[in-house]
TrEMBL record:
InterPro entries: NTF2-like_dom_sf, SnoaL-like. It comes from Blautia producta. Pfam families: SnoaL_4 (PF13577). It comes from the Bacteria. This is SnoaL-like domain-containing protein. Residues 16-149 form the SnoaL-like domain.
Length: 223
């Protein structure tokens, strides 16, 4: 005979599995919109009802609050596309943990990618663009929305020279230049002179979200 407790456990596991699939689709649609410069569609996937919604992108700083998130997405992604340009990020290796209270989730994806940079008066330049995404999701009504988003840039370099020779595109001080940006929490791209750190952390099972994205920066992989 199946006990009531067992029935509840099975039902919760089914809810977590459903959430996992929905979160995968949400991030997939978000990245697809990013790849094709669809700023309005990206914003549909953010929890803009949350005062502490945030977006952090490489060393551009942290954009916290609905207005700051809207501004940076519209300024960076909403630019008019030009002939020959491309940025195509892929999502791999999803690691998603849904909270026991089924209200939030923590997730990480690895993002290999490539692109083409167009500079005035010259031919498009092929580049590598690799990184990782760390994200918190929150349940709003019947939908999962991105609550905290952090793109950890790992490689951005010339396709021809590769990441060991060309560090020109990532060799910048970790100082935000946008007036709405708060200081970057973490930016440590590949360098031939440094040892790689295991950041962002893989999410671990948890009951209730602590309310910040600090878990992404945990360097202790035994937790």
């Amino acid at each position: 005979m199946i006990t009531e407790a067992r029935k509840k456990d099975v039902f919760k596991n089914l809810q977590k599995l459903e959430a996992y699939q929905e979160i995968q689709n949400e991030m997939g649609r978000t990245v697809a919109a990013f790849n094709f410069r669809q700023a309005d569609k990206i914003l549909l996937h953010f929890a803009l009802e949350e005062e502490d919604v945030s977006l952090e992108y490489a060393d551009e700083g942290v954009f916290q609050g609905p207005e700051a998130v809207k501004v940076i997405v519209e300024e960076v992604v909403g630019k008019t596309p030009v002939k020959g340009e491309m940025l195509d990020l892929q999502l791999t290796t999803p690691m998603i943990e849904v909270a026991e209270d089924l209200h939030t989730a923590k997730a990480v994806w690895w993002c290999p990618g490539g692109g083409a940079v167009v500079k005035e008066g010259s031919e498009p330049e092929a580049i590598w663009a690799w990184g990782m995404i760390g994200a918190d999701f929150i349940r709003e009504g019947e939908e999962w929305k991105i609550w905290h988003f952090h793109y950890f840039r790992y490689i951005k370099c010339s396709y021809d020279k590769g990441w060991t020779e060309d560090t020109s595109m990532i060799n910048r001080p970790n100082t935000p230049v946008h007036p709405l940006a708060k200081p970057t929490t973490y930016h440590n791209p590949y360098s031939p002179l440094a040892v790689r750190e295991a950041v962002p952390a893989c999410p671990r099972p948890y009951a209730v979200h602590e309310g910040t994205a600090d878990w992404m920066l945990c360097r202790d992989k035994t937790k």
